[in-house]
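Hi U.,

Before I forget, here's the chain from the pilot set. I'm dumping it here mostly so it's searchable later in email.
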Amino acid sequence: MGTETKYLLDTNVILEAFWGKKRVADKVGEWIESGKIVISVVCMAEILSKSSKKEEEMLRMLIKKFGVLEINQEIAELAGKYRFEFLRKKKRVYLLDCFIAATAKLHGLTLVTRNVKDYPMKDIKVLNPSKD
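Structure:
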């Protein structure tokens, strides 16, 4: 039996789903119904730092249903390696995105983002929900 794909949603995807952007909201809605989404503690913090009351309530409902993946030592070490690698290549990669990428890698998740260029790591699967 194969493993079912689970999707780690980037902050921009969660917010676009909340805002009702058709393609993104439809896909995220399907994944929510089938229990296939995962939320990173990093995305939770990013959303809470700039959310409206309604967005915060929606996020809290998702967290109640799916929980959040926390950062542990293994994720922190891989995130640090990603950041180090791309600093040397002069490719701007933010540390928070490195934490999200490391979470996807170590949990075998497909990272769903509208900002594919933010994730140049070759060892993770990245999906743009408005294109795929």
